[in-house]
Amino acid sequence: MTINETRMQGKRSRNAMHALRAKLVAPVLTAMIAIATAQTGVAQQALSAASIGPTAAATSTMGNRLQALYPSTRFGAINPTPWPGVFEVVMGANLAYVDESGQYFLFGHLYDMKSQRDLTAERKDSISTIDFDALPLADAMKEVRGNGLRVLAIFSDPDCPYCQKLESDIRDLTNVTIYTFLMPLVSLHPAAHSKAVSIWCATDRTSAWHAMMWRGEAVPQAECPHPVDRNVALGERLGINGTPTLIALDGRMLPGAASKEQIEAWLQRSVASVQDGGKPQVAPR
Fold first, then answer.
1. What's the rounded Cα separation, in Å, for the pair 13 and 34?
2. Domain boundaries, the chain
3. Which CATH superfamily is domain 54-127 in?
4. pLDDT tens digits for 104-117?
5. Tens digits of per-residue pLDDT, 124-173?
6. Which of 93, 131, 121, 123 is nearest to 247 (CA)?
7. How far apart are CA 81 and CA 108, in angstroms?
8. Which pTM does this prediction carry?
9. pLDDT (tens digit, 9 = 90+) per residue, 40-83?
10. Contacts of 137 by beta carbon, 8 Å cutoff, 6+ apart
């Protein structure tokens, strides 16, 4: 073999080695590029999540988890709480607290003991407010006591014992305007509808109402155009499923037969809310 032939053979060997090396290295390079691209995508997703904020990402994830675990349950807003790993869940007019797994629920009140605040009560006030100005006050009995400056509406049933207790307890409540929406719950009190209509059709509605609720007196049966059925439908739209239910001028709801003292404090919060920039503190039309 000549020197030139030897050189040519060596060149062919080197070319073969280069080709083999390229064949082996190319897939590795391709894989490395793919990994780098994937890592870039992950990084971009992380940056995107960071731009939304960890809170929004966490609540969104929590919402998806709850809906997957309980597909037949309708969940409302989901919010973080000061309690690490625990989320607040709104379900209609109810509040619950759930851990990150979605398995454990707590129904009750969450307190900040340092600031002595009932966080659950504050949240319930904020999510269950009603636009007082949107209430059809012409469909309610109106009673003005004293200067009438404090304003509230009451959804009440003439046969409801808790409504009777409430009326007795607030008998001496002064400086208030009360709008009473007659809302008979016929599923519980079959005769309440006719009584509500008779009260509305009385010559002096307020006196007839007081006679029945304060003294247990019967009201003569009467018929006339009345808003009783509209009031029942209104209560259902507002999510009022029990009587009595009170609504303050600032839209807060208070269900149940609260005492006069509780209502005084509840109305004072309404006054404070108005003074902080809410509706003017005057009795509505």
1. 32
2. 54-127, 132-275
3. Disulphide bond isomerase, DsbC/G, N-terminal (3.10.450.70)
4. 999 989 999 999 99
5. 767 768 899 999 999 999 999 999 999 999 999 999 999 999 999 999 99
6. 131
7. 14
8. 0.60
9. 343 343 333 333 345 778 888 999 999 999 998 888 889 999 99
10. 153, 179, 284, 285
